[in-house]
Design goal:
Number of strands: 17
Distance between the termini: 78 Å
Largest sheet: 5 strands, mixed
Shape: globular
Low-confidence stretches: 623-635
Radius of gyration: 27 Å
Helix content: 40-55%
Number of helices: 26
Mean pLDDT: 93
Oligomer: single chain
């Protein structure tokens, strides 16, 4: 097995890889992250391979299977290079025609061209897709160009060049200075300056020292770290090695969720190949640096993402957070100095060393530099992984990249920062993507989850959902979080059930402030954010639930009834066919009706009713049912 014992060996190998690389006229690039595979990407890739081989085109058309390109909603998809033709939502049956017409002849397959709607203009090239036009994909762009299972692909494109530069052209202190100058802040949520954290780790006494990659991505709807680990694991690993050199660490850990099997497999394979080539272990690349990495799989607890809980988990203990200080940089794993950054932060290190701090800081705001990856999900037209410069507004992301609200709907709010984040109203989406600006607005950057909600979302129910998640995931170590989140959840349960009184709102707010101030760790302290932000921006909805016993969005089952407007119903029967409890009766082309005694208020009939008709209505429960209790319930 070849070992790289000198930076010259690395460059020689890189040059050979480039010379030996086959040069087919075109390469069909199939996106195959977890999202793509769930949609059939591997079946598509095998069909493309079979079509190429059956026609004897192996030397003329290449096949590259990569990680996710970001536009998860259009999986499975592929790109034909070098032109950059894009086809999405494909099936194996489409492979042969793509190989024949586009791969061999360079022609477009018109029926597979991207269109957002039947009357929309066709878009043929990936770079012209509305989803990508406003993005700046500094970290995620490489996912399109390499097979994550092949270190050769990474090295051929310049991989491990930053490591060689750091080891042989820069001192450890110089590396830290470069990270400081870049303005890089931790992408795990807190936004602590990375260079200062590294300096603390380097200055700390004690041996051995450790570096840790926090890949425990537990936020509902978030998958930024997974996308990087699956698509470009060597970029994360190279960043960790450079960080280890800077702080003087000899051992490292990647703490990754067990629920990410593809990410676990790819980072393990990356570590093995780097170790075989002398890029990990003793005397890396012929230097005096010794460093190696292990993978530890998390057990799925949300609190494991908190760094002191993560440390306890790696040590084999229950993942409970502890009081700080001392901070992990001074006393972490087994009481030794430990530098912890998340996946995106480690991946950002490589381009900073390779291209310089000035290049990294050339985009962003005064205090928030570089780009940030978000997972955009929820009720917008386009969803997926988004990478944008810091400082763009949330509206830029939601409207320009995400395409805005779904047809016929109105955007209501966006939650940033996962279950510990806040819900910002649609009118406030001019706020910049910036650590301080989001905090002033009542939310957080978090690790990068973005959930869009429209007029069908009840903000009280949204707060109840996220608080319920926090209550279930609380490790229970401190009383404010353990008891406070459950008390708040109880109040929210009463509100959505129509059983709350006005004083409950004051009590809810007071509890949220107490939990925020008194919890032990960051997860407990931020757990109240969904409650406080919805009380701040959507208090009228709370009052409607409490004072009028009405859910304006028609979500809270105890406060709604479903009816069919006889003046609008055409008798199409779609609502009757989808009703899971046979609560809807009616003959074809006659007005239908809902039996309130049988209806479970699931809302399936509302969704099934064609948008042009909308005869099924979700409204408040009948006044005669509410009136007797209103006076007694009010405080």
């Amino acid at each position: 097995m070849m070992r790289l014992a000198h930076p010259g060996h690395l460059e020689d190998w890189r040059a050979r890889l480039r010379e030996e690389a086959s040069s087919p006229a075109r390469t069909i690039v199939v996106t195959a992250g977890t999202c793509g595979r769930a949609s059939g990407a591997m079946e598509l890739a095998e069909a493309v391979r079979a079509a190429i081989e059956s026609r004897g085109l192996s030397g003329r058309i290449g096949l590259l299977i990569t990680g996710c390109h970001g536009y998860c909603e259009w999986e499975p998809s592929l790109v034909v290079q070098p032109e950059g033709y894009f086809y999405g939502r494909l099936g194996p049956a489409d492979a042969a025609e793509i190989v024949e017409k586009t791969g061999l002849q360079g022609r477009i397959v018109e029926r597979l061209v991207y269109k957002e709607g039947p009357r929309s203009k066709a878009v043929t090239h990936l770079a012209d897709l509305p989803f990508y036009r406003k993005q700046l994909r500094r970290l995620t762009e490489a996912n399109l160009r390499l097979d994550p299972e092949r270190i050769e692909d990474y090295v051929q494109q310049g991989g491990y060049g930053a490591l060689a530069k750091a080891f042989f052209e820069m001192s450890a202190a110089g590396v830290i200075d470069e990270i400081k100058a870049s303005g890089l802040r931790g992408r795990g949520g807190a936004g602590f300056p990375t260079g200062i954290k590294w300096q603390l780790g380097r200055d700390a006494a004690g041996r051995p020292k450790y570096v840790v990659c926090n890949a425990d991505e537990g936020d509902p709807g978030a998958y930024m770290d997974r996308g990087l680990l699956e698509g470009n694991p060597h970029s994360v690993l190279e960043g960790m090695i450079i960080g280890a050199y800077a702080v003087g660490a000899s051992e490292g850990y990647v703490y990754v969720r067990a629920e990410y099997p593809l990410a676990v497999a790819n980072i393990r394979r990356a570590i093995e190949r780097a170790r075989e080539l002398g890029l990990l272990g003793e005397n890396i690349l012929g230097s005096e640096v010794h460093f190696d990495v292990q993978v530890v799989q998390g057990a799925g607890a949300f609190v494991s993402g908190e760094e002191t809980a993560l440390i306890a988990s790696i040590e084999g203990r229950r993942p409970h957070p502890r009081q700080r200080p001392p901070y992990p940089a001074e006393s972490g794993l087994w009481g030794r100095p430990t530098t912890i950054n998340n996946v995106e932060t480690w991946a950002s290190v490589v381009p900073i060393i390779d291209r310089g701090a000035g290049w990294f800081a050339s985009v962003g705001t005064e205090k928030s530099k570089g780009t940030k990856i978000f997972s955009l999900v929820g009720r917008v037209r386009r969803t997926g992984l988004v990478e944008v410069p810091m400082g763009v507004s949330l509206r830029d992301i939601i409207d320009d990249i995400g395409g805005g609200a779904l047809p016929g709907r109105t955007l209501k709010a966006v939650q940033t920062g996962g279950p510990s984040g806040g819900c910002l109203p649609a009118a406030g989406l001019g706020v910049a993507v910036d650590f301080e600006a989001l905090a002033r607005a009542g939310s957080i950057m978090g690790s990068g989850g973005l959930i869009a909600m429209d007029d069908r979302s009840c903000m009280v129910d949204v707060a109840r959902f996220f608080l319920g998640f926090a209550a279930e995931e609380s490790c229970g170590k401190c009383a404010p979080c353990r008891i406070g989140t459950r008390l708040m959840r109880g109040i929210l349960d009463r509100i959505v059930a129509g059983l709350a009184v006005n004083s409950d709102l004051d009590r809810l707010e007071a509890l949220a402030v107490t939990v925020q101030a008194a919890s032990l760790c960051g997860l407990g302290r931020t757990s109240a954010n969904p409650v406080l932000s919805t009380l701040r921006y959507f208090r009228d909805e709370y009052r409607a639930h409490v004072e009028d016993r009405v859910c304006p969005a028609g979500v809270c089952r105890a406060l709604i009834s479903l009816t069919i407007d006889p003046a609008l119903c055409t008798g199409c029967g779609l609502c009757r066919k989808i009703c899971p409890v046979d609560a809807i009766a009616g003959r074809p082309k006659t007005v239908h009706a809902i039996d309130p005694a049988l209806c479970i208020k699931c809302g399936a009939c509302v969704e099934a009713c064609p948008p042009g008709i909308r005869a099924v209505r979700s409204g408040p429960v009948q006044a005669e049912r509410k009136a007797p209790g209103r006076g007694r319930r009010r405080s």
